[in-house]
Amino acid sequence: MREQEKVNILMVDDQPGKLVTYEAILGELNENLIKARSGKEALDHLLRTDIAVVLMDVSMPELDGFQLADMIRQHPRFQKIAIIFISAVHLTDVDRLNAYQRGAVEYIAVPIVPELLRAKVRVFADLHRKTRQLEMLNRDLRSLSARLLAMQDEERRRIARDLHDGIGPLIAALSMNNGMLAQQTKTLGPEVAEVLHQSNQLVEQLSKETRTISHLLHPPLLDEIGLLPAIKMFAEGFAERSSVKVAVELSPDIGRLPPNVEISIFRIVQECLTNVYRHSGSKTAQIKISHTPDKLLSVQVCDEGKGMAGSNGASTAAGSSHGVGLSGMRERLRELGGTLEIQSGEKGTTVIAAVPVNKTTMKSV
Amino acid sequence: MRTRFLIVDDSELVRKSLRTVLQANPEWEICGEAPDGEAGVKLFKELHPNVVILDFQMPGINGIETARRMSEIAPAVPIVLFTQHASTDLEKHAREVGIRSVVSKTNAFPMVGMIQALLGPTDSEPATTDPGSSKKG
Lengths: 365, 137
Description:
The complex is a heterodimer of chains A (365) and B (137).
Chain A: E1 8-12, H1 16-26, E2 32-36, H2 39-48, E3 51-57, H3 65-74, E4 82-87, H4 93-101, E5 104-109, H5 114-182, H6 185-188, H7 190-217, H8 220-224, H9 227-242, E6 245-250, H10 259-280, E7 284-291, E8 296-303, H11 324-336, E9 339-345, E10 348-356
Helix pairs in contact in A: 5-7, 5-11, 9-10, 10-11
Chain B: E1 3-8, H1 12-23, E2 28-34, H2 37-47, E3 51-54, H3 63-73, E4 79-83, H4 88-96, E5 101-104, H5 110-119
Parallel strand pairs in B: 1-2, 1-3, 3-4, 4-5
């Protein structure tokens, strides 16, 4: 967006003469000035156009300024519009308070000082422009982070596949060759047999480590059989590596989900368990995945650890000291139209992700 | 009659090693090799093997789906899933489609003994043969 992209300023007054005056005062701001001669006409413009500032008279026939302000504020899209009242009457503190309670940003008494009105409108027009720029940047950032997450998934999948297709067969062949040699141990002599035994152990260790790296990068069962077996396998491996006892409770009717949903849920569970191990000090963890009555897939990971520092109950802000993990989870869920809730206290942490799932897109294994 | 093996694995190296291991037993022979599931099912129909050694993760259909199709054709033929991804859950899915055994590629040693056990006390006479087979080994 260009720095000086014009914003819309709506001027509402039942007297045409006043509208002309406002136009003359605000003309040099070089913004789009829109005139409305009644509350109804103003609402019509608001519904059709993105308005930055509403400049309105308090006293108008039919719909007065206060009533119009109430109607504007009721609409969620108009919450951020700057409303400036202009009034020749109703100038007590109670009137002013009334206006500010309706969300006015200014209450200007007649006679107007043109320079002051222009300066005030300019502030709110610039604020609106900057807000719009921020919103646009925010959208760009979200779309970028979604792309990055998708690329990261794809890259992990590729490396896991390379390990599987490249190193996996070498290890399998080595293992089989050693197996052949092992059948000849009687003719090899004790020293060679011992070296062969050690060699076997090395192959096993090599294979175990390669397998762990590959599975952490991308779970092989996810694409081939589905989310639930992949989560169970991951939980088994995690429990073995971390000594955290993991209970898994998965509703068997979940079946296959769209690939982007499966990988996102898997990554969320993976991230949660990693946090349990790294930060919670908990010796147990529980994973629960089930459908809710309102057609959401609920994914819960709980621990009995020390809770998250800085978190006070229901909502923990993404991007806080908990690193990119939580932000990543939120971004993944945002992409799926889901939500993330974190309950954390002295008795542990529960992370609840809710994902809308369209049952028609699912198929059974 | 010698026991005839079909090997289905996308890695040529693994197929070659399996061939070496299996052919060390003079009563065993490799009747065919396929690099993916579809080709494996085709050879399975044509060659009527006595045992199938099957990879899990391959291009195209995976080992589970391949085994399901083979079991529909000749359910009595023992299929061994030979995989880098052996786990209890994969084993459960494997059993459901008629796979008799899951062997980890990372520890292939028990493979030979396990196949012998699958074939029965004597390996000169295969315990399980394809009833539809008329082809002699």
